[in-house]
Amino acid sequence: QVQLVEFGGGLVQAGGSLRLSCAPSGRTFSTFTSYAIGWFRQAPGKKREFLASIGWNYGNTYYKDSVKGRFTISRDNAKNTVSLQMNSLKPEDTAVYYCALSRGVDGTPQYPAEYDYWGQGTQVTVSS
Asked: In this structure, are strands 61-63 and 10-13 parallel, antiparallel, or unpaired?
């Protein structure tokens, strides 16, 4: 099985920053030779929205246009984690944020259906 745990959600004022981390684990995960990690969010009444993804082996990244320059996805090879640094946060960024894993790829998938495993989500709330 594969488990993904998100860390770092919370309450922040508009203009502030948060850093989310995603830690995959599990016996099945340990057999993967290539995979990508993506970050998504879902606000009340809205569909799940892609934010950014990273291919683990090469560190290639892809961003939703609206978060370029504010959000940065990165990998930590030693810790085997992926982070999403979020700066200049706005109230409209308020949502549950999810990390997800797409197995067997070196690219940067953009769609929920391309991901095989999902974390439990972490709440991010941005106040005015």
From this structure: unpaired
